[in-house]
């Protein structure tokens, strides 16, 4: 492919794709939202910060002569994915969604699916100790909980937060042994997480299964209509190469 490729997102898939594109000699710009204070940077050119909505992104694509866009943002970055689809459509730039598969339950799992963080908060009413691993965005949905809440995030979360809260600042991946010890140490009775997929944060699911702890999972939002979706970096690289 001639021209630059814009890779949206700070996910592991986005970083691996950027590395593969650089290795292939393809000009790549990785765009990070800037929500993490100390992000892990991908190889190649990096842009941090928003574009100003779909119109701003469309203008940037034209100004930078971008030949293709790969949306490799987090599975729950629905606003950015929608803006990417709209912008790409406005200027006629090919767009691909790179999204890792969601998690699949295993024998012994006690998973309870919900459609939003507000529903997740309602689902854990009555539990005494809740492990919130939904990220620091959206914790306001759990602010009314009376249970003790263990919150883990890369950067300190901002209020409103649950009244009884313990914050653990950490960046994955985590081992099953580490997650098991954490759940036991805090007497966790239920885990709340998003269906992010991938191996980097899946150890908590194994630990919960081993300890007989239920897990409340928030379903993913659907991808924008009409945008092709692939699940692997290899498929995304082939798509770019075929363009």
From TrEMBL:
Name assigned to this protein: Precorrin-6A/cobalt-precorrin-6A reductase
Pathway: Cofactor biosynthesis; adenosylcobalamin biosynthesis
UniProt lineage: Bacteria, Bacillati, Actinomycetota, Actinomycetes, Geodermatophilales
Species this chain originates from: Geodermatophilus ruber
Top-level taxon of the source organism: Bacteria
Sorted UniProt keywords: Cobalamin biosynthesis, Oxidoreductase
PANTHER family assigned to the protein according to its UniProt record, in alphabetical order: COBALT-PRECORRIN-6A REDUCTASE
UniProt keyword annotation of Ribosomal protein present: no
Entry annotated with the keyword Iron: no
Pfam families: CbiJ (PF02571)
A GO molecular function held by the record: precorrin-6A reductase activity
Biological process annotations from GO: cobalamin biosynthetic process
């Amino acid at each position: 492919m001639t021209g630059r490729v814009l890779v949206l997102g700070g996910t592991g898939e986005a970083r691996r794709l950027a590395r593969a594109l650089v290795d292939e000699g393809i000009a790549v710009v990785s765009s990070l939202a800037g929500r993490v204070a100390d992000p892990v940077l991908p190889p190649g050119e990096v842009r941090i910060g928003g574009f100003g909505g779909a119109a701003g992104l469309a203008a940037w694509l034209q100004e930078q002569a971008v030949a293709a866009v790969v949306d490799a943002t987090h599975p729950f970055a629905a606003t950015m994915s929608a803006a990417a689809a709209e912008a790409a459509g406005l200027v006629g730039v090919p767009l691909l969604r790179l999204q890792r598969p969601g998690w699949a339950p295993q024998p012994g799992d006690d998973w309870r699916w919900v459609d939003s963080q507000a529903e997740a908060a309602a689902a854990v009413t009555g539990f005494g100790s809740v492990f919130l691993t939904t990220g620091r965005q959206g914790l306001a949905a759990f602010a009314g909980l009376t249970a003790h809440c263990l919150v883990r995030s890369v950067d300190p979360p901002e209020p409103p937060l649950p009244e009884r809260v313990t914050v653990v600042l950490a960046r994955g991946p985590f081992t099953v042994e580490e997650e098991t010890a954490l759940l036991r140490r805090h007497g966790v009775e239920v885990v709340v997480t998003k269906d992010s997929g991938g191996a980097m944060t899946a150890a908590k699911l194994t630990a919960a299964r081993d300890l007989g702890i239920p897990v409340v999972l928030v379903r993913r939002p659907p991808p924008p209509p009409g945008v092709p979706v692939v699940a692997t970096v290899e498929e995304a690289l082939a798509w770019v190469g075929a363009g």
